[in-house]
Amino acid sequence: QVQLVESGGRLLQAGASLRLSCEASGRTFNKYAMGWFRQAPGKEREFVSSISRNGDTYYADSVKGRFTISRDNAKNTVYLQMNSLNPEDTAVYYCAAVFSLGIVTSQRQFEYWGQGTQVTVSS
Length: 123
Known about the structure:
Blueprint: E1 4-7, E2 11-13, E3 18-24, E4 32-39, E5 46-51, E6 57-59, E7 67-72, E8 77-82, E9 91-99, E10 112-113, E11 117-122
Parallel strand pairs: 2-11
Antiparallel strand pairs: 1-3, 3-8, 4-5, 4-9, 5-6, 7-8, 9-10, 9-11
């Protein structure tokens, strides 16, 4: 069992930067592929970014070039650095994990989910 706790979400203005963190419990964090998803009001949850256990990364087109995912296996933590934020990035951001060798992008494949952290970007 893996427990995920996101942090870092807050209210900020367009153009600002923010780093989200997701800390995982357990001693096998380095065996898990990790992902970030988001859900805006009235919309379905969507993929943002993911990182494999080996550090391969993948991004949604909407965030490519602005967001960077990374992981620190020594700290059992995955990060999402978000730059040039705009109001369309407003959402609850969720961290997810799945025991996997390769990179994972489908929500259905992720086994564990955090409670989410709210990011609100004002214009």
